[in-house]
Design goal:
single chain, about 110 residues, 4 strands, elongated
């Protein structure tokens, strides 16, 4: 009779002989990349965590409408907007929140 105990199936990935974190482990911190892999494999807990992460951090890239529309030809000139600047400080786009436009470009006379 052997004194070694057989590994539990919960600690091993199917078809693998090495332990792997294929399910949430209490106290373990997962990177977003690890959560995405688990979510792609169908892990419901990981899917929820990825969704939570996306909702929490997606707004970090949204503007705060702290600029004013610089385009004097715009109907909403002076309204709160986000201005997208190019590499050399040129205005690329003026975002009014629900819609946006390119900046006024002087027309040749």
């Amino acid at each position: 009779m052997s004194t070694k105990s057989a590994p539990t199936t919960g600690s091993l990935q199917r078809g693998s002989e090495t332990p792997s974190a294929r399910h949430p482990q209490r106290g373990r911190r997962y990177s977003i990349e690890e959560l995405e892999v688990l979510a792609d494999e169908g892990n419901a807990w990981a899917m929820a965590k990825v969704d939570e992460w996306e909702q929490r951090f997606a707004n970090d890239y949204a503007g705060d409408l702290s600029d004013t529309c610089p385009d004097e030809d715009c109907e909403y000139f002076g309204e709160s907007v986000n201005v997208l600047y190019g590499e050399h400080g040129t205005v690329l786009e003026v975002d009014h929140g629900n819609w946006s436009h390119y900046p006024f470009i002087a027309k040749a006379s």
